[in-house]
TrEMBL record:
It comes from the Eukaryota. InterPro entries: FAD-bd_PCMH, FAD-bd_PCMH-like_sf, FAD-bd_PCMH_sub1, FAD-bd_PCMH_sub2, FAD-linked_Oxidoreductase, Oxid_FAD_bind_N. Gene3D superfamilies: 3.30.465.10, 3.40.462.20, Uridine Diphospho-n-acetylenolpyruvylglucosamine Reductase, domain 2. The chain crosses the membrane at residues 6-23. Keywords: FAD, Flavoprotein, Membrane, Oxidoreductase, Transmembrane, Transmembrane helix. Belongs to the oxygen-dependent FAD-linked oxidoreductase family. One of its GO terms (molecular function) is FAD binding. Residues 33-54 are annotated as: Disordered. Residues 33-46 have a biased composition (Basic and acidic residues). This is FAD-binding PCMH-type domain-containing protein. Residues 90-274 form the FAD-binding PCMH-type domain.
Length: 555
């Protein structure tokens, strides 16, 4: 009796904790949207601007009078700076923002930037890097400086937001600056979907060019492997299409090559009929993480093609297992996202594949799993990841090995212990595990990620997503995150349970995702860069994001 009462009160307490947590996060996202962050703290001065840079801004503004936002246009400039997801990125203040209204305007901007780059190259000493501009779509990169540049030019693709399904419903043309919510709102109405992002506020451009993990990846492959064609503005200022038949090398390179080849204005996505999906989170106390790890391992192992007795249903997406420590309440919680992308016969029941998994019997104090639109499912993800906080991501890849999963969780716990000693205000420290199955990465078009030829066994993408309140903690949190990932990598190396792949869109700035694509693919990307951008505009003038290190030695 007493123990029963005790467990009820523990449950209630945990329920309250998690509700408070979610309400806070929701509220902070809403209030940030309302007040539009005019007085975000820690804004550095704007002295990144030199006379040459001011001149460049003026030149762009006179060529494109309605499409350049300068700092003296206070409201528009602040609005633009405040519209990044990570607070650190909001603090990278450019000299101007170019927001082209059409592809022609973008070509003009790139031509001017290329001219400036060529001129400076002549004046500058050999090999000097010349950060001039950054490219931005949804602004959700967690790496500061990936989609903005101090004292430089931001090319903001926000007005390239079209979502146009083809007449036969087999493809959809989507502007690079669209967000996934723009896409699903149009497609939900039509009973269509694309292999796209899982979070409504994330941008189409960055996610698609970095690889892309979708609820539909088990059925169709990675997001990048489902792009029929790209429209790209090259360093020369000209526009080309890249598809299986035109510029096929560029087409392949863009499937994971990020911003290294040109500026993509729009994508033609494969699409398919889709109505509602079953999706949601299970919230659990963090007292028995081993049970969650075991359920994760068991489910992912169903996809192990070396074991013919298990069958994997490719309408199931996830599990995405999130282990979170919340400093404000001094407690941990586990949330697991489960998805099923086929209509259910009985909407009240869990889909068979999940009902027969160990997740079904794990103790939970809350479940949000239900049948809903894709828009609703992606909004749920978004509500858990509000903008306006200091952020860091880092990632690694392991095999679906129980001992390594346990070591990952131990590293996560060690991280909490060292962060606790310093009391990082507002810290939310999250470990995320998600499967990456050999069968998924082989679906769709070939890409240079180096996963097609990976060992024939399930992989697990391990990522950390950390956020906190104050700039003074930046270095400490980053260092701790790095040390945590390195601890996992050391374990995996010693037990031969690691994998070289690092998902570019989850990488920290110190990581080198292209190295993880394998020497041959890395070499291929460098070759394509040399042929479409011989002077290296996108290597040396567009410095943000992950670069190919064209001039470094061999892999
Ligand atoms: C809350 C959250 C949820 C996420 N969920 C998912 C998920 O479900 N699946 C997944 O795969 N990833 C996910 N990610 C990771 C996401 O893919 C990356 O953050 C991605 O960079 C976001 O793209 P963006 O356009 O919003 O970012 P931006 O910051 O605008 O761009 C990111 C990088 O791409 C480059 N780039 C962007 N657009 C173009 C273009 N048109 N041409 C050339 N270069 C370009 C930029 O220069 C920059 O370096 C998530 C991230 C966050 C923060
Ligand atoms: C690229 O393809 C689109 C759609 O097929 C077409 O409208 C456009 O003219 C093409 N652009 C170039 C530069 O060939």
């Amino acid at each position: 009796m007493v123990s029963r009462l005790l467990s009820v009160s523990v449950t209630t307490t945990l329920l309250i904790i998690i509700s408070v947590f979610i309400m806070r996060r929701l509220r902070s996202s809403l209030s940030l949207r309302d007040t539009k962050k005019p007085d975000r703290p820690d804004r550095p001065d704007r002295t990144g601007s030199s006379p040459e840079r001011a001149m460049l801004s003026r030149r762009l503004a006179s060529a494109l009078p309605d499409s350049v936002i300068l700092p003296h246009d206070d409201a528009a400039f602040k609005q633009s700076m405040g519209s990044y997801w990570a607070q650190q990125e909001c603090e990278v203040i450019p000299a101007c923002v170019v927001r082209p209204r059409n592809v022609q305007q973008l070509c003009t901007a790139v031509t001017l930037l290329k001219r400036e780059y060529d001129e400076r190259g002549k004046q500058a000493d050999e090999g000097e890097a010349q950060g001039l501009f950054a490219v931005r779509s949804g602004g959700h990169s967690p790496v500061a400086g990936a989609a903005s540049i101090k004292g430089g030019v931001v090319i903001d693709l926000g007005l390239f937001s079209e979502v146009t399904p083809s007449e036969d419903g087999s493809s959809v043309t989507i502007g690079a600056g669209a967000k996934w919510m723009d896409v699903s709102k149009v497609l939900d109405e039509k009973g269509l979907a694309v292999i796209g992002g899982r979070n409504s506020a994330v941008g189409v451009g960055g996610l698609t060019l970095g690889g892309g993990l979708s609820f539909f990846s088990p059925r169709f492959g990675l997001v990048c492997s489902n792009i029929l064609s790209y429209e790209v503005v090259l360093a020369s200022g000209s526009v080309v299409n890249a598809s299986a038949s035109t510029n096929p090398d560029l087409w392949r390179a863009l499937k994971g090559g990020s911003n290294n080849f040109g500026i993509v204005t729009r994508f033609r996505f494969r699409s398919f009929p889709s109505t509602k999906i079953w999706s949601g989170f299970l919230y659990m106390p963090a007292v028995r993480p081993a049970k969650v790890l075991a359920a994760f391992h068991e489910f992912v192992n169903r996809a192990d093609s070396r074991d013919p007795s298990t069958a994997y249903d490719d309408h199931a997406a996830g599990p995405i297992a999130c282990f979170t420590y919340i400093q404000r309440v001094g407690a941990q919680v586990i949330a697991v996202n489960l998805v099923y992308t086929k209509p259910l016969e009985n909407e009240k029941q869990w889909p068979t594949c999940w009902r027969t998994s160990s997740f079904r019997s794990l103790f939970r104090f809350w479940s949000t799993c239900k049948v809903r639109t894709l828009t609703s499912a992606t909004d749920e993800m978004n509500a858990l990841n509000p903008p306006g906080r200091r952020q860091v991501f880092a990632t690694t890849t392991i095999k679906n090995d129980p001992a390594t999963l346990a070591a990952v969780h131990a590293a996560y716990r060690d991280g909490i212990a060292s962060l606790r000693r310093v009391n990082v205000r507002g810290l939310v420290w999250t470990l995320v595990l998600q499967p990456l199955l050999p069968d998924w990465v082989r679906k769709g078009d070939a890409n240079p990620l180096g996963l097609h030829d990976c060992a024939d066994e399930p992989l697990v993408i391990v990522s950390f997503t950390i956020n906190w309140d104050e700039g003074r903690d930046d270095e400490f949190v980053k260092t701790t995150t790095r040390r945590t990932v390195e601890q996992i990598d050391a374990f995996a190396a010693a037990h031969r349970t690691g994998h070289r792949y690092r998902y570019l869109n989850y990488c920290a700035e110190w990581q080198r995702p292209f190295k993880g694509y394998g020497a041959e693919n890395w070499q291929f990307l460098r070759r394509v860069s040399k042929s479409y951008d011989p002077e290296g505009l996108f290597q040396k003038a567009c410095v943000g994001g992950f670069k190919l290190d064209v001039e470094d030695g061999e892999a």
